[in-house]
Design brief:
The N and C termini lie far apart (39 Å). The protein is mostly helical. The chain has 17 helices and no strands.
Protein backbone atom coordinates (compact mmCIF):
# COMPACT_ATOMS: atom_id res chain seq x y z
CA UNK A 1 0.00 0.00 0.00
CA UNK A 2 1.21 3.48 -0.91
CA UNK A 3 0.16 6.95 0.19
CA UNK A 4 -0.63 9.71 -2.32
CA UNK A 5 2.26 11.74 -0.93
CA UNK A 6 4.73 8.91 -1.57
CA UNK A 7 3.61 8.59 -5.19
CA UNK A 8 3.84 12.34 -5.72
CA UNK A 9 7.31 12.52 -4.15
CA UNK A 10 8.55 10.06 -6.78
CA UNK A 11 7.12 11.94 -9.76
CA UNK A 12 8.22 15.35 -8.45
CA UNK A 13 11.78 14.38 -9.36
CA UNK A 14 10.69 14.25 -13.01
CA UNK A 15 8.08 17.02 -13.26
CA UNK A 16 8.13 20.51 -11.79
CA UNK A 17 6.54 23.85 -12.61
CA UNK A 18 8.82 26.54 -14.10
CA UNK A 19 10.19 29.37 -11.98
CA UNK A 20 8.13 31.93 -13.90
CA UNK A 21 4.90 30.31 -12.68
CA UNK A 22 5.97 30.56 -9.05
CA UNK A 23 6.91 34.21 -9.63
CA UNK A 24 3.45 34.90 -11.10
CA UNK A 25 1.77 33.08 -8.22
CA UNK A 26 3.73 35.17 -5.70
CA UNK A 27 2.69 38.37 -7.48
CA UNK A 28 -0.95 37.29 -7.42
CA UNK A 29 -0.71 36.73 -3.67
CA UNK A 30 1.00 40.10 -3.10
CA UNK A 31 -1.55 42.90 -2.61
CA UNK A 32 1.11 45.47 -3.57
CA UNK A 33 1.89 43.92 -6.98
CA UNK A 34 0.75 45.58 -10.19
CA UNK A 35 -0.18 44.70 -13.75
CA UNK A 36 3.27 46.00 -14.74
CA UNK A 37 4.95 43.52 -12.36
CA UNK A 38 2.95 40.63 -13.83
CA UNK A 39 3.70 41.74 -17.39
CA UNK A 40 7.42 41.76 -16.65
CA UNK A 41 7.25 38.30 -15.07
CA UNK A 42 5.47 36.77 -18.06
CA UNK A 43 7.72 38.55 -20.56
CA UNK A 44 10.82 37.21 -18.81
CA UNK A 45 10.12 33.75 -20.26
CA UNK A 46 9.94 33.76 -24.09
CA UNK A 47 8.23 30.36 -24.21
CA UNK A 48 5.50 31.39 -21.78
CA UNK A 49 5.09 34.70 -23.61
CA UNK A 50 4.58 32.93 -26.94
CA UNK A 51 2.02 30.52 -25.46
CA UNK A 52 0.09 33.29 -23.71
CA UNK A 53 -0.18 35.34 -26.90
CA UNK A 54 -1.12 32.28 -28.96
CA UNK A 55 -3.93 31.32 -26.61
CA UNK A 56 -5.22 34.84 -25.99
CA UNK A 57 -5.50 35.40 -29.76
CA UNK A 58 -7.46 32.17 -30.24
CA UNK A 59 -11.14 31.29 -30.20
CA UNK A 60 -10.59 30.03 -26.66
CA UNK A 61 -10.97 33.62 -25.47
CA UNK A 62 -12.54 35.26 -28.51
CA UNK A 63 -11.15 38.76 -27.97
CA UNK A 64 -11.71 41.09 -30.93
CA UNK A 65 -8.62 42.23 -32.83
CA UNK A 66 -5.01 41.13 -32.66
CA UNK A 67 -3.32 41.21 -29.24
CA UNK A 68 0.39 41.65 -29.87
CA UNK A 69 1.87 42.37 -26.42
CA UNK A 70 1.82 40.74 -23.01
CA UNK A 71 0.86 44.07 -21.46
CA UNK A 72 -2.25 44.23 -23.63
CA UNK A 73 -3.10 40.61 -22.80
CA UNK A 74 -2.76 41.19 -19.06
CA UNK A 75 -4.88 44.33 -19.20
CA UNK A 76 -7.62 42.53 -21.14
CA UNK A 77 -7.60 39.29 -19.16
CA UNK A 78 -6.69 40.41 -15.66
CA UNK A 79 -4.05 38.98 -13.36
CA UNK A 80 -6.09 35.96 -12.25
CA UNK A 81 -6.82 34.74 -15.77
CA UNK A 82 -3.19 35.21 -16.82
CA UNK A 83 -2.17 33.12 -13.80
CA UNK A 84 -4.60 30.38 -14.81
CA UNK A 85 -3.43 30.43 -18.43
CA UNK A 86 0.24 30.23 -17.46
CA UNK A 87 -0.59 27.42 -15.05
CA UNK A 88 -2.39 25.37 -17.70
CA UNK A 89 0.51 25.63 -20.15
CA UNK A 90 3.04 25.01 -17.37
CA UNK A 91 1.27 21.81 -16.30
CA UNK A 92 1.31 20.46 -19.83
CA UNK A 93 4.98 21.40 -20.18
CA UNK A 94 5.91 19.84 -16.84
CA UNK A 95 4.53 16.47 -17.90
CA UNK A 96 5.61 16.60 -21.55
CA UNK A 97 8.53 14.27 -20.90
CA UNK A 98 6.52 11.74 -18.86
CA UNK A 99 5.11 8.97 -21.02
CA UNK A 100 4.15 5.87 -19.01
CA UNK A 101 4.41 2.78 -21.17
CA UNK A 102 0.90 1.62 -20.27
CA UNK A 103 -0.86 4.92 -21.00
CA UNK A 104 -1.97 6.28 -24.36
CA UNK A 105 -0.78 9.85 -23.84
CA UNK A 106 -2.61 11.41 -26.77
CA UNK A 107 -5.88 9.96 -25.49
CA UNK A 108 -5.02 11.00 -21.93
CA UNK A 109 -4.49 14.67 -22.82
CA UNK A 110 -7.47 14.69 -25.18
CA UNK A 111 -9.65 13.50 -22.29
CA UNK A 112 -8.09 16.11 -19.97
CA UNK A 113 -9.00 18.88 -22.42
CA UNK A 114 -12.53 17.44 -22.69
CA UNK A 115 -12.93 17.60 -18.90
CA UNK A 116 -11.54 21.10 -18.81
CA UNK A 117 -13.95 22.33 -21.46
CA UNK A 118 -16.91 20.58 -19.84
CA UNK A 119 -16.10 22.11 -16.45
CA UNK A 120 -15.58 25.54 -18.04
CA UNK A 121 -18.88 25.39 -19.93
CA UNK A 122 -20.72 24.20 -16.83
CA UNK A 123 -19.24 27.11 -14.87
CA UNK A 124 -20.46 29.51 -17.54
CA UNK A 125 -23.95 28.05 -17.32
CA UNK A 126 -23.90 28.67 -13.58
CA UNK A 127 -22.67 32.22 -14.09
CA UNK A 128 -19.45 31.74 -12.11
CA UNK A 129 -17.03 34.65 -12.20
CA UNK A 130 -13.98 32.72 -13.41
CA UNK A 131 -14.89 29.83 -15.73
CA UNK A 132 -11.30 29.70 -17.05
CA UNK A 133 -10.22 28.53 -13.60
CA UNK A 134 -12.47 25.51 -14.08
CA UNK A 135 -10.73 24.70 -17.36
CA UNK A 136 -7.44 24.37 -15.47
CA UNK A 137 -9.01 22.30 -12.70
CA UNK A 138 -10.60 20.04 -15.30
CA UNK A 139 -7.25 19.71 -17.05
CA UNK A 140 -5.77 18.55 -13.73
CA UNK A 141 -8.65 16.37 -12.55
CA UNK A 142 -7.17 13.09 -13.82
CA UNK A 143 -3.48 13.94 -13.34
CA UNK A 144 -3.39 11.44 -10.47
CA UNK A 145 -3.62 8.61 -12.98
CA UNK A 146 -0.58 9.90 -14.82
CA UNK A 147 1.36 9.86 -11.54
CA UNK A 148 0.14 6.38 -10.61
CA UNK A 149 0.99 4.82 -13.98
CA UNK A 150 4.40 6.51 -13.97
CA UNK A 151 5.40 5.51 -10.44
CA UNK A 152 3.59 2.18 -9.86
CA UNK A 153 2.43 0.93 -13.28
CA UNK A 154 1.95 -2.70 -12.28
CA UNK A 155 -0.51 -2.00 -9.48
CA UNK A 156 -2.21 0.78 -11.44
CA UNK A 157 -2.82 -1.69 -14.27
CA UNK A 158 -4.06 -4.35 -11.84
CA UNK A 159 -6.52 -1.84 -10.38
CA UNK A 160 -7.80 -0.93 -13.84
CA UNK A 161 -8.23 -4.58 -14.81
CA UNK A 162 -9.95 -5.31 -11.50
CA UNK A 163 -12.41 -2.46 -12.07
CA UNK A 164 -13.20 -3.78 -15.55
CA UNK A 165 -13.57 -7.42 -14.53
CA UNK A 166 -15.70 -6.71 -11.45
CA UNK A 167 -17.60 -3.81 -13.07
CA UNK A 168 -16.80 -1.45 -10.20
CA UNK A 169 -15.59 2.17 -10.27
CA UNK A 170 -11.86 2.42 -10.89
CA UNK A 171 -11.30 4.49 -7.74
CA UNK A 172 -12.70 1.66 -5.61
CA UNK A 173 -10.35 -0.83 -7.23
CA UNK A 174 -7.42 1.57 -6.77
CA UNK A 175 -8.25 1.96 -3.10
CA UNK A 176 -8.26 -1.81 -2.63
CA UNK A 177 -5.10 -2.51 -4.66
CA UNK A 178 -2.96 0.56 -3.99
CA UNK A 179 -4.39 2.11 -0.84
CA UNK A 180 -5.34 5.39 -2.52
CA UNK A 181 -7.17 6.62 -5.61
CA UNK A 182 -6.44 8.98 -8.47
CA UNK A 183 -8.37 11.89 -6.94
CA UNK A 184 -6.32 11.72 -3.75
CA UNK A 185 -3.09 11.55 -5.73
CA UNK A 186 -4.10 14.52 -7.87
CA UNK A 187 -4.91 16.52 -4.74
CA UNK A 188 -1.55 15.61 -3.24
CA UNK A 189 0.23 16.83 -6.37
CA UNK A 190 -1.70 20.13 -6.33
CA UNK A 191 -0.73 20.61 -2.68
CA UNK A 192 2.90 19.69 -3.34
CA UNK A 193 3.08 22.24 -6.17
CA UNK A 194 1.56 24.87 -3.86
CA UNK A 195 -1.29 25.59 -6.24
CA UNK A 196 -4.15 27.75 -4.93
CA UNK A 197 -5.90 25.87 -2.11
CA UNK A 198 -9.12 25.35 -4.00
CA UNK A 199 -7.39 23.17 -6.58
CA UNK A 200 -6.41 20.43 -4.14
CA UNK A 201 -9.79 20.48 -2.39
CA UNK A 202 -11.83 20.32 -5.62
CA UNK A 203 -9.66 17.64 -7.25
CA UNK A 204 -9.57 15.55 -4.09
CA UNK A 205 -13.36 15.73 -3.66
CA UNK A 206 -14.39 15.21 -7.30
CA UNK A 207 -15.71 11.72 -6.46
CA UNK A 208 -17.78 13.05 -3.55
CA UNK A 209 -18.14 16.83 -3.98
CA UNK A 210 -19.86 17.40 -0.63
CA UNK A 211 -16.44 16.90 0.99
CA UNK A 212 -14.95 19.96 -0.75
CA UNK A 213 -16.20 22.47 1.81
CA UNK A 214 -16.14 25.99 0.36
CA UNK A 215 -15.04 24.58 -3.00
CA UNK A 216 -18.01 22.27 -3.37
CA UNK A 217 -19.19 23.90 -6.61
CA UNK A 218 -15.79 23.39 -8.24
CA UNK A 219 -15.69 19.75 -7.13
CA UNK A 220 -19.26 19.29 -8.40
CA UNK A 221 -18.31 20.65 -11.83
CA UNK A 222 -15.38 18.21 -11.99
CA UNK A 223 -17.75 15.42 -10.99
CA UNK A 224 -20.10 16.46 -13.78
CA UNK A 225 -17.27 16.74 -16.33
CA UNK A 226 -16.04 13.24 -15.46
CA UNK A 227 -19.45 11.75 -16.17
CA UNK A 228 -19.99 13.71 -19.39
CA UNK A 229 -16.67 12.33 -20.64
CA UNK A 230 -17.37 8.78 -19.43
CA UNK A 231 -20.69 8.65 -21.28
CA UNK A 232 -19.56 10.34 -24.49
CA UNK A 233 -19.84 7.15 -26.54
CA UNK A 234 -22.85 5.71 -24.71
CA UNK A 235 -26.35 5.35 -26.05
CA UNK A 236 -28.45 8.27 -24.77
CA UNK A 237 -25.32 9.77 -23.16
CA UNK A 238 -26.95 12.81 -21.56
CA UNK A 239 -29.56 10.73 -19.73
CA UNK A 240 -26.74 8.40 -18.64
CA UNK A 241 -24.92 11.30 -16.96
CA UNK A 242 -27.81 11.97 -14.61
CA UNK A 243 -28.14 8.25 -13.88
CA UNK A 244 -24.46 7.98 -12.89
CA UNK A 245 -23.96 11.27 -11.05
CA UNK A 246 -24.21 11.62 -7.31
CA UNK A 247 -27.87 12.72 -6.94
CA UNK A 248 -27.07 15.45 -4.39
CA UNK A 249 -24.47 16.92 -6.75
CA UNK A 250 -26.83 16.87 -9.72
CA UNK A 251 -29.49 18.60 -7.63
CA UNK A 252 -27.06 21.20 -6.32
CA UNK A 253 -25.99 22.11 -9.87
CA UNK A 254 -29.63 21.99 -11.01
CA UNK A 255 -28.53 19.82 -13.91
CA UNK A 256 -31.05 18.66 -16.49
CA UNK A 257 -30.68 16.61 -19.64
CA UNK A 258 -30.97 19.84 -21.62
CA UNK A 259 -28.10 21.44 -19.70
CA UNK A 260 -25.91 18.39 -20.22
CA UNK A 261 -26.75 18.26 -23.92
CA UNK A 262 -25.71 21.91 -24.23
CA UNK A 263 -22.42 21.33 -22.41
CA UNK A 264 -21.56 18.27 -24.49
CA UNK A 265 -22.30 20.10 -27.74
CA UNK A 266 -20.06 23.01 -26.73
CA UNK A 267 -17.21 20.65 -25.83
CA UNK A 268 -17.47 18.75 -29.10
CA UNK A 269 -17.49 22.04 -30.99
CA UNK A 270 -14.39 23.43 -29.24
CA UNK A 271 -12.32 20.34 -28.48
CA UNK A 272 -10.29 19.98 -31.69
CA UNK A 273 -9.34 23.67 -31.80
CA UNK A 274 -8.31 23.71 -28.13
CA UNK A 275 -6.23 20.53 -28.46
CA UNK A 276 -4.44 22.05 -31.45
CA UNK A 277 -3.93 25.23 -29.42
CA UNK A 278 -2.38 23.64 -26.35
CA UNK A 279 -0.69 20.79 -28.23
CA UNK A 280 0.31 22.39 -31.55
CA UNK A 281 2.64 19.55 -32.50
CA UNK A 282 -0.32 17.15 -32.32
CA UNK A 283 -2.87 19.53 -33.81
Amino acid sequence: MTTPQELVACVEKLASLPAVYHRIRALLDDPDSSVHDLTEAVASDPGITARVLRVVNSVFYGFPGKIETVNRAVNLMGMQQVHDLVLSTAIIGAFSGIRPARMHMTRFWTDCVFRGLAARTGARQLGLADPERMFVEGLLADIGHLVMFQVDPDNAQIALETANSKNIPVHEAEQAVMGCNYAEVGAALASSWHLPGGFAMAIGAQLMPALAGPHVTEAALLHLANHILATDEAENPDEAVLERMDPMTAAMLEMSVEHITSIRAAVRNEKSAVIALFFPCRG
